[in-house]
Structures are given as C-alpha cells and as structure tokens.
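Notes from the 1:1 (GR / supervisor)

We went over the backlog. Supervisor wanted to see one worked example end to end before approving the batch request, so GR pasted a single chain during the call. The sequence is below; no edits were made to it. Supervisor asked that the structure be written out right there so they could see what the output format looks like.
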Amino acid sequence: MLRWTVLFCVPVLVLFCLAGCGGRTSATPAPGNASTEAPQANSTPAASGVYGSMANAVGNIEQMGGWTACTAQLPDGMPCASGLGNAAYSMTQHMPIPSRDGHSTQFSISGPTGYSNVLWWNQLTPAPSASHFVYDFWVYVTESNAPQALEFDLNQTFGGTKYIFGTECNFKGTGVWDVWDGREGKWVPSPVGCVPFAANSWTHVAWTFERANGQVHYVSIAINGTTYPVNMWQAPQANVDAQELNVAVQLDGNSRQQPYSIWIDDMSLSYD
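Structure output shown during the call:
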C-alpha cells in the first residue's frame, strides 16, 4: 500500500492531532483564530463554477470499485485513521434509499472505544499536471449530533511531494471547517463555520482547490449552493515516494462512540 497522510482530531483532556503513516503528534490544539459563524457569502452560485468547464471529471466515485478502509492502524502498524481505538465499520454501495439517483453509498461506524475513527479512500488515475480541482458530493445523515467530525480529502502526489487538500467539518471541536497543513502535520481552523448537518436531508458540499507556487490553496467551499471564501494557503508534505490522485472520507466517533451512518451520493472530482 502506498504511504499517505491520514488526518484526525479528537478532543480529550488535550486535543491530539495526528498525521498518520509516519507523521507527528501534537498535544496542543491547532493554532489560529477562527469564528464559529460563517462569513458573509459571495454571490457565486456554486464552487463548481469557479473554474468553468474542467478538462477532466470523474463522476459517481461512491459507486466505483477500489475503495479501501482502515481504522486506527494500517496492517504494518503505522497510524491510519488513528483515534483512541479500532472502530467497527462497514460500507454498502448502491443503496436505493436514501439516494438522489438510486445508488448512494452508506458509510457506517461503531465500536467499543470512544473517539475511534475509520477512513475510506479510492485511488483514481494519477494526474500530475492537474492544478485546479473541484471535489463535489452530497451527504445525508440521520443522527446529526453523533459525528465528532466528518473529513473529506483530496490527495495528489508526484515528484516526491504530496499535496494534501484535507478538510474536516469539526462539529464538536472547533465548530468550523478545519484545513490541513501538510508541512506541520496539523489542522488549522478556517474562517467558515460548520454546524451539524440537517438530519434526514441532503447537504451539498463542493470544495474548490488549486495547487499553485508549490502550495495547497483552499479557495472556497460551497454549501447547498452558497459559496464561502476560504482563501487559505498551506504547505505540502515533502519526501513522499508515490504518484497518486485519490479522494477520501473519514468518520470520527464521539466520546461515547455513538453508532452512526452517512450516505454519500453524486461524488465527483473535476480537474485540469
């Protein structure tokens, strides 16, 4: 398996943030000031329109084969989704209900230990020349208060450098969308607030990213059609021997490891 960074945050007596697969730990919260209120929205209708028509697109990623999962550790003992224990988990594709097109995918987490997490990822065709991305998906939850956090990532690696577009809706921690600093291996709060997703309904999320000047640029996030500027620049992770393009989804358990599921539909990645 290719080595790649896996991200998580859980608030216990101190806030532990771990970058997996050989990353570092920190016993302090990610630095930075962030408002728990969403900033004034732009009039842009959706993030997918920021770059116009992309040259490449992969649709219905949630229906594709090739999804891989791990919980606290990889088979070789290196950290994966980390957390405080091994979560129980399952993934079921082609769910007719709830769905938008009759083929959603259900991701579920449970287990005996609080603050345990599970990560799924899918390797796509590497695209080292791509520098603009829109990661677009719909999420359905039934238990709004069960997730500690939900993480949605895009990873691009080539030439010994890994560009991690890591995002986390940190419901019970910072209360904002956190983004990943690949060089320091830690979460950084963004200015965009994040509240629990509405139960029994679909939430539409579209992240717009770019890779420019050797950095990761979090351009904006669109939530249910309203775009919020993020405009944060973070460093990539150096010395990674891989060539890849993948998307990832992580479910974080809360203090009681309350079982919950999310359903994802119409997941796509557009890029050029």
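Supervisor's comment: The chain has one domain: 9-271.
Batch request approved.
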